[in-house]
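Sample intake sheet
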Amino acid sequence: MAKEIFANGIQIVPLSSYVDERGTFLEIFNETIPFLVKQDNLTYTKKAGTLRGLHTQIGPYAQSRIVYCIKGAFYSLSVDLRKGSPYYGKSHILLMEEEKPALQYIPKGFAHGILSLKDDTIYTIKVDESYNRDRTNHITLSAFYDANELDFDKLVPGLPLIQSQRDQKEAYQNPQEIDSGVIYTEEN
């Protein structure tokens, strides 16, 4: 499978593994996607049905992301918050599984979250800007999602949705409430 670039700028890069009697080798990251990693995060999620996010950082702290599934499976959920984007407010849902290794690239100006589909899911997210803890100036936000587009009852039927108290309490419900500080161009 070749690299796939969606109209909204999100990219999927399939990865090839090399298997022999010793085990498996997998090149996870190279310059296929031009990206300067400033922070690399590893997350372990205990229970299927856990939603982390959707989160974003705004203005000069906006982050592009590269997502990779190490173990388990999850939906990578993105919402376009770039001003002027023809995809503004639209959701992008991508199934990521350890059995189908791939990188997902998400440009600056998107809110992003992970919805685990299996217990004991592990993934990494590389970002090109460091995490900014300044919540008082709303640099880091828990973002909205459109319940019609991200219908969790359909995405994880029969599972209770598990969220942090912060994400439940602070989530914006309308994209108009968020100024991502990122303007859409054909290049981003």
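Comment: The domain at 4-17+33-172 is CATH 2.60.120.10 (Jelly Rolls). The chain has one domain: 4-17+33-172.
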